[in-house]
Amino acid sequence: MPIGVPKVPFRLPGEEDAVWVDVYNRLYRERLLFLGQQVDDEIANQLIGIMMYLNGEDQAKDMYLYVNSPGGAVLAGISVYDAMQFVVPDVHTICMGLAASMGSFILAGGEITRRIALPHARVMIHQPASSYYDGQAGECVMEAEEALKLRDCITKVYAQRTGKPLWIISEDMERDVSLSAEEAQDYGVADLVALENVSR
């Protein structure tokens, strides 16, 4: 039975009494952001809004974006990536679970040397997909041209962020490339594999 989003007490600055806020809002105040769903315009706009707010609030404190996403809309993912590059604080990315497709693109967009994969995380890269256009042939050709431009953009970003040659990224994007946390580190999508807490 779903219980909804848990609530936690939080005292606003200047207030005497704590108020109950949902756990995500409380974590946002600590600069912890979450992408735990398919990338679409709504979640992209929420993440961008939070990043811009936190950027304006304090440009000296880093942000931490936890990614567990099967991917999603290409332009929405690129907009999150662009916002991560735009804000002044470093954006650390942490992959937990799955970062596939645009999820891996956002993971790779974290501050270089600050991109982490948890030990059992999975990362997958591939080329962007296009919806099959149900219209006139000329419009279908234009959509195909736009898809090629987006693929070229994504390939260049992966090459820049991973340090791999453009031709290797382009070749790998022809199919689904699934990576373990260690393989993602070797590939350059992540910089570090977090150690398991074995002290328990």
Can you lay out the helices and strands and say which pair or pack?
Blueprint: E1 7-10, E2 19-22, H1 23-29, E3 32-35, H2 41-57, E4 63-69, H3 74-86, E5 91-100, H4 102-108, E6 115-117, E7 122-125, H5 137-162, H6 166-172, E8 177-180, H7 181-187, E9 192-193
Keywords: Chloroplast, Hydrolase, Plastid, Protease, Serine protease
EC number: 3.4.21.92
InterPro entries: ClpP (IPR001907), ClpP/crotonase-like_dom_sf (IPR029045), ClpP/TepA (IPR023562), ClpP_His_AS (IPR033135), ClpP_Ser_AS (IPR018215)
Describe what is shown at a glance.
The protein is of the alpha/beta class. 42% of the residues lie in helices and 21% in strands.
Word description of this protein:
The protein has 200 residues and is of the alpha/beta class. It has a domain at 22-129 and 174-193: 2-enoyl-CoA Hydratase, Chain A, domain 1, CATH 3.90.226.10. It is built from 7 helices and 9 strands. The strands form 2 sheets. Strands 3, 4, 5, 6, 7, 8 and 9 form a 7-stranded mixed β-sheet that branches. Helix 2 runs parallel beside helix 3 and helix 3 (74-86) runs parallel beside helix 4. The two termini are 30 Å apart. 30% of the residues are buried.
Question: What sort of overall outline do the alpha carbons produce when their principal axes are compared?
Answer: globular
Second rung of CATH, namely the architecture of the domain at 22-129 and 174-193: Alpha-Beta Complex
Beta fraction: 15-25%
Helix content: 40-55%
Low-confidence segments, ≥5 residues, pLDDT <50?
none
The chain-level mean pLDDT equals 90
Question: How many runs of DSSP E, i.e. beta strands?
Answer: 9
Order of helices and strands: EEHEHEHEHEEHHEHE
Family: Belongs to the peptidase S14 family.
Active site: 101, 126
GO molecular function: ATP-dependent peptidase activity; ATPase binding; serine-type endopeptidase activity
Enzyme class: hydrolase
